[in-house]
From TrEMBL:
This is Uncharacterized protein. The keyword Glycosyltransferase does not apply. It comes from Crotalaria pallida. GO terms for cellular component: endomembrane system. It is a lipid-anchor. The lineage of its organism: Eukaryota, Viridiplantae, Streptophyta, Embryophyta, Tracheophyta. Keywords: GTP-binding, Lipoprotein, Membrane, Nucleotide-binding, Prenylation. One of its GO terms (molecular function) is GTP binding. The chain holds residues 6 to 180 of 225 of the full protein.
Length: 175
């Protein structure tokens, strides 16, 4: 655990995206290796931390979850303050949640540091028969907007560790 460890870096990363795309479950999977089938939107801002080693340095990831404030413009500037990374999450079975990525990105860029590392995440890839967002559409958007991109499943644990490690490594490299 985090006990009695020398921390070299603390990196704040914010999760953003529509309600019910799986932000809270991605964080639960990464931070506690847990998944809650009946996850409910809760009110207020929360974060969880996980300490990991990158390039022989001890990095404490502080991952913030919007917890029920996903209405347009409801996320306050305090949420974005000091963030060095952001994960823009959509549900690949809900086209609308992907279409809203441009607006979340605009809001993020309006609040965040210009050097913030941003990763686009298409979650729920376990539901492939219900896919509503082709991988190529997301790749094209990510390329145009200069974002990293990955498809994940918080349920099956696919790419969850990898996407957090990828963004934290990129953050480490530029800080
Ligand atoms: P949030 O509002 O973005 O925080 O979304 P939640 O993490 O609360 O998840 C919303 C719903 O989607 C819950 O019923 C979760 O169990 C479900 N869910 C989250 N991630 C996945 C996933 O990767 N696959 C599937 N099939 N369901 C998921
Ligand atoms: Mg949530």
């Amino acid at each position: 655990g985090d006990y009695n460890q020398k921390i070299d870096y603390v990196f704040k990363v914010v999760l953003i995206g529509d309600s019910a795309v799986g932000k809270t479950q991605l964080l639960a999977r990464f931070a506690r290796n847990a998944f809650n089938v009946d996850s409910k939107a809760t009110i207020g801002v929360e974060f969880q931390t996980k300490t990991l080693i990158i390039d022989n340095k001890t990095v404490k990831a502080q991952i913030w979850d919007t917890a029920g404030q996903e209405r347009y413009r409801a996320v306050t500037s305090a949420y974005y303050r000091g963030a060095v990374g952001a994960m823009l999450v959509y549900d690949m079975t809900k086209r609308q949640s992907f279409d809203h990525m441009a607006r979340w990105l605009e809001e993020l860029r309006g609040h965040a540091d210009k050097n913030i590392v941003i990763m686009l995440i298409g979650n729920k890839c376990d539901l492939s028969s219900l896919r509503a967002v082709p991988t190529e559409d997301a790749e094209e958007f990510a390329q145009r907007e200069n974002l990293f991109f990955m498809e994940t499943s918080a349920l099956e644990s696919t790419n969850v560790e990898t996407c957090f490690l990828t963004i934290l490594t990129k953050i480490y490299q530029i800080n």
